[in-house]
């Protein structure tokens, strides 16, 4: 009986299994295969075209001895910390306010989500206009009579990366708000009633009851925002071009420059491998937590 049952199990849902073959082949060949090929080439001296002349960790040694890469890594850290913290905090506060059943909630939700519907190129151009001293915030304030007012962070090497942070927050906080609002709407109404009956201040209810219950939402939000941070490229290109100088350079732009403009595949792929490793460091713990959480259920 057991031997007769095996063929039936093998051919069960055969149509679905056959339909999944192209997707599985694409994942194995295009994604996993090309990723492994990228890592292999990062240990070679490839220039304009791939070549299998292995040089060990020379490309990585050169990478971390390059001031431009170090600046881009520091900028990514600054952008990442500010974006992750402020988008999460502001997004949660906006969601908590929206959860009070306010009037015109749909309109407000659309307004906050609208920037996320724009491409990073459009966001970068919009904020370039806003922050440009000649006709942006500085010009508007000076026209109001404050002629000594100065606000030109796009032209200041010390603060250019913070212009990218501002534009990034404007672009992505609406998505975080939507995720948080969905999490808040999933909280049982009885919890709110019980906290009011017990006289617990609303801030304590959020801090000690609601937020711990929204742990999966926070983890998903952090993973989504973090992977977006590592890949940030077009926002920087549209807003600052990586300047002034290399003051707002980021790793993704460094990879593009070395692979397509300087014809140095080995160096560009070494940098992209470091970026891949960073993404895996973020995703793998999240996947393990989700898997373990699913097994407990």
TrEMBL record:
Pfam families recorded: BPD_transp_1
Entries under Gene3D superfamilies matching the protein: MetI-like (1.10.3720.10)
CDD domains: TM_PBP2
Record membrane topology: Multi-pass membrane protein
Top-level taxon: Bacteria
PROSITE patterns: ABC_TM1, PROKAR_LIPOPROTEIN
Places the protein is found: Cell membrane
Family statement drawn from the similarity comment of this UniProt entry: Belongs to the binding-protein-dependent transport system permease family.
Protein name: Glucose/mannose transport system permease protein
Organism of provenance: Phyllobacterium ifriqiyense
């Amino acid at each position: 009986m057991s031997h007769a049952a095996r063929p039936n199990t093998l051919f069960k849902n055969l149509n679905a299994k056959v339909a999944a073959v192209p997707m599985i082949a694409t994942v194995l060949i295009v994604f996993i295969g090309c990723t492994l090929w990228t890592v292999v080439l990062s240990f070679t001296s490839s220039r304009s075209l791939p070549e299998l002349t292995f040089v060990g960790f020379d490309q990585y040694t050169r990478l971390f001895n390059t001031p431009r890469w170090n600046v881009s890594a520091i900028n990514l850290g600054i952008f990442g910390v500010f974006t992750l913290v402020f988008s999460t905090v502001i997004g949660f506060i906006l969601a908590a306010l929206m959860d009070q059943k306010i009037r015109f909630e749909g309109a407000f939700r659309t307004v906050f989500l609208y920037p996320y519907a724009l491409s990073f190129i459009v966001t970068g151009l919009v904020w370039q206009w806003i922050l440009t001293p000649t006709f942006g915030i500085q010009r508007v304030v000076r026209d109001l009579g404050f002629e000594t007012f100065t606000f030109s962070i796009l032209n200041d090497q010390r603060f250019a990366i913070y212009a990218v942070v501002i534009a990034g927050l404007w672009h992505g906080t609406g998505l975080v708000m939507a995720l948080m609002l969905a999490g808040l709407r999933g909280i049982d109404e009885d919890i709110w009633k019980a906290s009011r009956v017990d006289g617990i201040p609303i801030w304590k209810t959020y801090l000690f009851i609601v937020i711990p219950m929204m742990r999966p939402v926070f983890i998903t939000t952090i993973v989504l925002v973090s992977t977006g941070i590592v890949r940030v490229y077009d926002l920087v290109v549209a807003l600052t071009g990586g300047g002034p100088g290399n003051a707002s350079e980021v790793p993704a732009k460094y990879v593009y420059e070395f692979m397509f403009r300087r014809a140095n595949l080995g160096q560009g792929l070494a940098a992209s491998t470091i970026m891949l490793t960073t993404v895996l460091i973020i995703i793998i713990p999240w996947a393990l937590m989700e898997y373990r959480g699913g097994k407990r259920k």
